Amino acid sequence: MSQESLLKDDSTQAARLDRLREFLHHSPTPWHATTNMAERLEAAGYRRLDETDTWSLKPGDRFYVTRNDSAIIAVNLPASPLAALRMVGAHTDSPCLRLKTNAAQTSAGWLQLGVQVYGGVLLAPWFDRDLGLAGRVHVRHPDGRLEGLLIHVEQPVAIIPNLAIHMDRDANEGRAMNAQTQMAPVFLQGGDKEDFDRLLEGWIKEQHGLSDVQVLDFEIGFHDLQPPSIVGVGGELIASARLDNLLSCFIGLEAMLEADGSQGMLLVANDHEEVGSASACGAQGPFLGDVLKRINAQLGQGGEENYIRLIQASRMISCDNAHALHPNFRDKHDAQHGPAINGGPVIKVNSNQRYATNSATAAMFRALCEEVEVPVQTFVTRADMGCGSTIGPITATEIGVPTLDVGVPQWAMHSIRETAGTQDVEYLTRVLTAFFNSPELA
């Protein structure tokens, strides 16, 4: 029986894939993803802490904290004295089209919404898709109170129509796309600029029961309405929007909730990785460092020296998807480094420190994979091509923790719809669970 058929017969793995699809479907933005992760943590007994409160931590505590409602850190403290933390990092944001502040514009009898390109978006796949809207809206109540609300419009309210091939005979030869003039989704026939404000107020009333609030500002983007799917005759693939990097967020959370809780564990999911991580809730910001310092102050020995000792005894696995070998573009990979879908997690290596992996941290991960009988792969980009990066090098730089970069192999990275292997979800979850449970860190 094939590996994929075995997967379909395994109720545990099937249930995990169901949870994954549910998480992806209900997480169209970083704010929604963070909220959904927080709800699962609370259901598992983790308590929410507020950064503005005084914390009182004790051995055995399980808690989480959010920043900007779009980044989250969850911590499991051991019952024994805290000597090290097993950290897993990911990010909640994905490339997309975000609305401009004054988004409404009209052309040829249509109301359109002007967009900003967030991150390194593959623009072509956004054409001819049923698009919904989602994000965060800040409103003022009649009593003057300000509140942030999540909005998720799951109806196909917009589309970016392609130009007919008859009017652009060179379209299949690689037509350049202009995000300013050609990517504004069509929203409402005969509409004007006030209609968007009216519709936004209507969605707030429908989803939150509020009809007397004033919209002050928003961060809203478009998202594809096609739901996540298991694809392939053998169920080998999962296809969805935002696999980069909600897949890592999900796997990290699954591993944390499955771990036995005997060791110090931390899961961080930063925002803004796709635009450089330079923000208060990004990996280049102080979020993780702030939480670690508060933990050390209460459960460590206190002081800078003991903080450094804690960090150097800890390890970070930065999880962000890797480039799988594409059957139609095999020449884009180094011949010795073409990770296969469903071939196991990928250690990502770059001598110029675009990835944080070194031989010591890679050896630790390989040993973990061997321990739980999971295959492991390596990705090194072609020497004549550039290389992306992750939160790994940034976290290692900001915190100083020994780090490596790994990821599930995927196709179509930064597309509106991406593809990864179903078996790889189980593989990486198994390895990260072993990492969280490991009594010794190499």
UniProtKB/TrEMBL annotation:
MF annotations from Gene Ontology: aminopeptidase activity; metallopeptidase activity; zinc ion binding
EC number of the protein: 3.4.11.-
Cofactor(s) recorded in Swiss-Prot or TrEMBL: Zn(2+)
GO biological process: proteolysis
Keywords for this protein: Aminopeptidase, Hydrolase, Metal-binding, Metalloprotease, Protease, Zinc
InterPro entries tied to this protein: Peptidase_M18, Peptidase_M18_dom2
One Pfam family it belongs to: Peptidase_M18
Cellular compartments per GO CC: cytoplasm
Family, as annotated: Belongs to the peptidase M18 family.
Cross-referenced PANTHER family: ASPARTYL AMINOPEPTIDASE (PTHR28570:SF3)
The protein's name in its UniProt record: M18 family aminopeptidase
Lineage per the UniProt record: Bacteria, Pseudomonadati, Pseudomonadota, Gammaproteobacteria, Oceanospirillales
